[in-house]
Amino acid sequence: MSESPRSAPVGVIFAVDPDRFAEVVRALRQAGLTVTSEQPELGTLSGTVTEDRLPAVEAVDGVESVDREGTVRLPPPDSPFQ
Hints:
Blueprint: E1 9-16, H1 21-31, E2 34-39, E3 44-50, H2 54-58, E4 63-68
Antiparallel strand pairs: 1-3, 1-4, 2-3
């Protein structure tokens, strides 16, 4: 059985208020985020959240921006397209 698109986890990267970093991370976890990496000095973190919980984590007070993780594929070094 496969997950529906609304419940599939998506990778997200957050910029948050660095002065309230720990507080914002706690609130994001409560809203459904699974944190995979934290950079408190920079005020950034990344994690995964189900598609249907994305609006809840975007609305957390102290979140300055949310970006979906993307994948970049480069051609092989010997490819004519660089």
